[in-house]
What does this fold into?
Amino acid sequence: MDAVDALNEIAFWLERDLSPTFKVQAFRKAAALIGDLDAAELADRVHDGRLRAMKGIGGRTAEVIGQSLYGLPDYLDNLRRKGADPLASGGADLRKALRGDLHTHSDWSDGTTSIELMLATAGMLGREYLVLTDHSPNLTVAHGLTAERLVEQLGVVAALTEATPVGGVRLLTGIEVDILENGRLDQSAELLARLDLVVASVHSKLRDDSITMTRRMLAGIRDPHTNVLGHCTGRLVTGSRGTRPPSTFDAERVFAACAENDVAVEINSRPERQDPPDELIGLALDSGCLFSIDSDAHAPGHLDFLSYGAERAAAAGVPPERIVTTWTVEKLLAWSRAGR
It folds into this structure.
């Protein structure tokens, strides 16, 4: 087995299980260290002991690399067996119906890996399309993309799209754009119009009063470039960042605006978010909204979190046809570009 593939897949399974970051990065670092070695050189280093002498190669990573010369490494085999079952037991039919993911991040903002590795992992998971939605400039803590960096990224995506083999994952351009305090979107209309899809989210002043937050969200939803309302309450229910209560806003008005403006309500699949809460999914459903089940992945292993979102959507009785991530890429793009 290719040793780099083995190391990166191990990192995927560890991320999927929310293992400590340092453990995941040990395998990614090892993959990067040996990435430029040809097969003969790698085998020589394994057999004469020079591999273990390389800074950044530990006992476990050296073992994986050595075993990959002859087949499937034991450590990876065990992780595959452990991960054979889906992360969530419910929503199996809906999970199988999901074709893509509209909310993902790379190391261009606050993701941990390259666009290429995110794309490769999406292929491994059987996705048909993946939208790259790194953050916008206002979110400086997440290294949000300036207009200049977004233009640069569009060039990178175009090159990757051209290089994608037949049957590969379709990489689409996008952004997770902040809904600013005045309700405007945190990027120029000209650049937003060039993107395949726009996720609009609130990331600041989450404790504002209901009237202020409702006004802000309605303005963001009504912007013709907005396709998806991301993690609408901003809550955190678990995880290393602690917990955070949901924002307060007039949900009936917000979801009515989503339905009126053909904006999908995101069912954010990250375990620490589980956003919206169940009662708001029900309200959005009754309001006639479309939905988007997204991973909000910041690392390759997070891409499989869609299982959690599918389970919650199925439990709420959301029909698959109202979930835009079950649509073909052609139907998705016809919808996302309709108001541009």
